[in-house]
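Sequence in, structure out.
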Amino acid sequence: MRKSLLMPCLLLAITSNALTSKHLILESRLILPHQSFIFTFMSPYNPAALRRQYEQAAANKEAGEKFYNLLHDYKANDAIVLAYKAASEAIKARDASMLNKLTYVQQAAHTFEQAVALDPTNAEIRFLRFSVESNLPAFLGLSKHVDEDKAFLLAAALQHPRSGLDEEAFRTVRGFLVSRKHVSEAQAEQLAQVKSS
């Protein structure tokens, strides 16, 4: 009897805190596996969520700090999440003191190496590395993949939708390549002919 009364109370407590505590949601799945369909939880490491946070972080120092803090302790080996972690380290470098900038840029380069090694044909990972490295001062010597990644991204964008990029990522890559003049006028025209869904 006591167990049957406890379950609805536990369920109510869990659902009321579901939006504020991801750990409680995960624990609830262990406690109530047959009820797990109730707890639809979007991971903070979902690529769509990371894209939005990356865009905000690129434009805003406070958002950059939040983005870095989200990914700083990430230790798993999901290649796309590692690429966003590297991007967050590069953003941290942008906002860091002069003494710490190089440390964060080197961390970002190392994390990008890990991400690309795990999934070398992922265009989104290559785009993140390209967007960082193409903005680094050449004298740092940390922009060694710019030409390789640019060629990879141009080929991927021209093959869309068979490139592995979803619609949002395709538009972002195409827009970045064209607006930042990373491609020739002829290549920009070719990219303009590629239809997005």
